[in-house]
Specification:
alpha+beta, 11 helices
């Protein structure tokens, strides 16, 4: 679903249209544009997969700040996992200042203050999910956000997010869209709890997400001739027997 294409708008309306579209797709915050007039450009799209939303944005430079005063405004408690695809993002939360390079994932707890920006041309894809559906405690989310790359699931989730976006129009209109959203939530939950290192949450999440992880890996590498049960099992640190037991049964 197309949310915004500033190419269809008069130059003087683009900044406000960008602000309105961004806040409608996220949470109340202060949004500023780096440029003005004809130099402002943006394209935003959104797709729904059950409780999960995929949001994409390509635009000229901008910044967003969610300060404590904006936390008092109505907004759904959400978590966002984004993939920077173009340009370098600058992210600040809980005392951390991170550079988010193209190809890197960023986890953002939208219930606490943060700021994010990029200069020049940039683009990102984000999975947004309600806290109650993610079912991971805030302290685990925030610990996981600090060390996402430490998780062995990082590359799998990154590839899965990219694949969903590649076929987003088809997948969002498929009868299995809600089920895909549920499976993706399981993957994100496993990534966060794995990265957090909190064993009480990591072990159950990894066990519950094994099937979605195996299926996502298989779909991502489906066209590769060396994709075998042994390779899939090795990638997930399980036996071939357990891997084949994960395969869906006909009927």
């Amino acid at each position: 679903m197309l949310l915004l294409d500033t190419g269809e708008l008069p130059a003087q309306e683009r900044v406000e249209a960008f602000r309105t579209a961004l806040v409608s797709a996220s949470v109340p915050s202060l949004v500023s544009m780096e440029e003005s007039g004809e130099r402002v450009f943006a394209r935003m799209e959104r797709w729904q997969f059950g409780e999960l939303m995929l949001f994409t944005s390509r635009s000229s430079g901008w910044s967003v700040t969610r300060s404590p005063r904006f936390l008092r405004l109505e907004g759904p408690p959400m978590v966002s996992l984004s993939l920077q695809t173009h340009g370098t993002g600058r992210f600040g939360q809980s005392g951390r200042r991170d550079r988010v390079e193209p190809g890197e994932l960023m986890l953002n707890d939208l219930t606490i203050p943060y700021d994010f920006a990029w200069s020049g041309s940039g683009a990102a894809r984000a999975l947004q999910m309600p806290y109650d559906v993610l079912a991971v405690p805030p302290d685990v989310v925030r610990r996981g956000a600090e060390r996402l790359r430490a998780s062995p699931l990082y590359e799998l989730v990154r590839a899965h997010l990219a694949r969903i976006h590649h076929d987003a129009d088809t997948l969002a209109g498929d009868p299995g869209a809600a089920a895909l959203g549920t499976a993706t939530l399981e993957l994100v939950r496993a990534l966060i709890t794995s990265a957090s290192g909190v064993d009480a949450h990591a072990r159950p999440a990894l066990a519950e997400s094994l099937l979605p992880r195996v299926l996502a890996y298989a779909r991502t590498h489906l066209t590769e001739p060396d994709l075998t049960p042994a390779r899939i099992a090795h990638a997930h640190n399980i036996s071939v027997r357990r891997c084949t037991a994960c395969a869906p049964r006909p009927g």
